[in-house]
Description:
By secondary structure, the protein is mostly helical. The protein has helices at residues 3-15, 18-25, 29-43, 59-87, 104-117, 121-131, 136-143, 147-161, 166-177, and strands spanning 48-51, 54-57. The chain folds into two domains: 1-100, Orthogonal Bundle (Arc Repressor Mutant, subunit A); 102-178, no CATH class. A hairpin with a 2-residue loop joins strand 1 (48-51) and strand 2 (54-57). The model is unreliable at 94-100 (pLDDT under 50).
Amino acid sequence: METAHLHEYITLAKTQSFTRAAGELAITQSALSKHVATLERELGCELFVRNGRGVVLTQAGAVLYEKALIAEHLLKQTRMAVRDAVNAPAEEGPVFDTDIQPDIALRCACNLVARRYGLTAAEHTALVGFLEEHGFAAIEDELDLNRDELGALLGGIYRKLGVHDKDQLVALIHSISE
């Protein structure tokens, strides 16, 4: 599985449009379509339902989306760790980042909440990043948003979920996972 294809898949899932995703990725729609078809062949299932307005993730597509986000996050951390190792003085020895495992239980609960409350892919990504305390800058970078846009997105999530603060949000997430 090509990591570039996973990145393209994530972009398509977030934008829900071949046209927008291809534009963001600076590739042709045809190339994007071929790469998605390659993933579908490799996994033996449809990942998107195509409709007149764009695409929507299938259940299998949602699973791949979640795993692709984790894989992309791990790849980013790996690249940074390797770059840091190259730049570290030799006498320090290897540096290991043991805090790279995402909270799988939290992500599963977020997936359930996203499905139950109809969150978009971007809202789901923001919710996970917010609850895993990645920091606003990291979430903004991942979703290509500015601070105001992220604030509006998180506010929309709060309204959809019927919560008023982070404590209520955490309680809702934990109640869903029990």
